[in-house]
Write a structure and sequence with these properties.
Layout: H1 2-8, H2 13-20, H3 24-34, E1 35-40, E2 46-51, H4 74-86, E3 107-111, E4 136-144, E5 151-159, E6 169-180, E7 185-195, H5 196-199, E8 205-214, E9 217-222, E10 230-231, E11 254-262, E12 267-272, E13 275-280, E14 294-303, E15 307-308, E16 327-335, E17 347-352, E18 357-365, E19 369-375, E20 379-380, H6 381-384
């Protein structure tokens, strides 16, 4: 049942986006009116530096009386400080560089969208094999706590690649958290993605997404699109480009990402490196307020063509060699009432589909911690099915 929910969370996203098409131009105009500065990067992206107290999220009907939480609570900060101290050293790791926007303090950078409304894929984050006919596939690990427990945080270092995608395809690596029933559920996601339909290029970009179902009525979107993510950092932006990526048998780059529940405010914070970028407020989280029922880490792809794109490095999984296959390491999970730890104490399940595999998951050493590999070259659906 819980796997089915991961499809339901985005099934009606297309309907949502179509209904929103007529307001896109108005949203761009409103943002420019509140912009303290406009920045065009060397990649051609345009960012509006919006007054943090006038950002789009605060126009959401459920957030009209919301008071911005500029930093996580002291309880969460203490918990994170303790977990960061116990994490393996990153001193000999090549950390990826995320494009820094350079907005002034007191503002937040928001990527200006093309007036053409981007396509949002149905069945975006699901796991049931009956949906594979849509061209949706995945490979990674699912982690579930014991009965009566909730997941209140998930962290990992995601290795970065730039898989080749065509129109009507995407390839992503992510951390996903979800909770709830079929009729009422919520999920949040963070990672990197190559998506021509959405970003209009083939760069590896930082992304998040959110979905919620209330009495079978679905809302879902990427990044800042439907005004559900409250941004607090002026340094980085959702949609920004990673300026270096891994290449097989060459330099490998990783980026630490985290989703952590502030149990006092009931808000989920998104961390990139050691920076809190912002949060999803409790008003928009429903069943995630007290924690998640499951966490997924790994790769996901979608193709509306008869063949699928590469996932991760695009190499055959083989034995999961970490110098050739995309991986996540330093995987840690926090359960309610405990500290971050590797997932050995949770129920961990490998999830594969059609053209892609995951595996080689275990605690390795003090440098990499718990890690696993995933990916595959994609290809003709009929030929690579397993």
């Amino acid at each position: 049942m819980e796997y089915k929910l991961l499809f339901i969370t985005v099934i009606f996203a297309i309907v949502y986006q179509v209904l929103c098409m007529h307001v896109v131009a108005r949203q761009v105009l409103t943002r420019s009116q509140h912009s303290l500065k406009t920045i065009k990067t060397r990649f051609g992206d345009i960012y509006d530096c919006i007054d943090v107290y006038k950002q789009p999220a605060l126009s959401h009907p459920l957030l009209k009386n919301h008071k911005i939480q500029m930093n996580p609570s002291s309880v969460l900060l203490e918990s994170l400080e303790s977990s960061f101290k116990t994490m393996p050293s990153s001193s000999n790791i090549n950390l990826a560089k995320l494009e820094e926007i350079g907005c002034p303090e007191g503002s937040v950078p928001i990527l200006r969208k093309n007036k053409r409304m981007p396509k949002v894929e149905a069945n975006l984050w699901g796991f049931e094999s009956k949906y594979q006919a849509t061209g949706y596939d995945y490979a990674g690990i699912i982690m579930k706590p014991n009965t009566g427990e909730k997941i209140t945080g998930a962290k990992a270092r995601l290795e970065l690649y730039q898989p080749y995608v065509e129109d009507q395809q995407f390839s992503a690596s992510m951390i996903l958290l979800q909770s709830g029933s079929t009729d009422n559920n919520a999920s949040i996601h963070v990672g990197w993605m190559v998506n021509k339909d959405y970003f209009h290029d083939t760069q590896t970009r930082f992304f998040s997404s959110w979905s919620q179902t209330n009495n079978r009525k679905e809302s879902a979107c990427y990044n800042n699109d439907c005004h559900v993510f409250v941004q607090t950092s002026y340094k980085y932006s959702l949609g920004a480009i990673f300026t270096n990526v891994s290449k097989i048998n060459e330099t490998q780059y990783v980026v630490p990402m985290s989703l952590v529940l502030d149990t006092e405010a009931k808000a989920w914070w998104l961390y990139i490196f050691d920076t809190p970028l912002g949060y999803w407020p409790a008003e928009l989280l429903n069943n995630l307020k007290d924690g998640a029922d499951l966490a997924f880490m790994g790769g996901m792809v979608l193709s509306n063509k008869p063949y699928s794109p590469p996932m991760g490095s695009g190499q055959d999984f083989g034995n999961g060699s970490f110098d050739k296959t995309c991986y996540m390491d330093q995987v840690t999970v926090e359960k309610s009432g405990s500290q971050f730890m590797d997932p050995s104490g949770l129920t961990v399940e490998i999830k594969n589909s059609r053209c892609y595999h995951a595996g080689n998951n275990r605690y390795f050493d003090d440098k990499n911690g718990y890690m696993f590999a995933f990916g595959g070259p994609g290809g003709d659906f009929a030929k690579c099915a397993h």
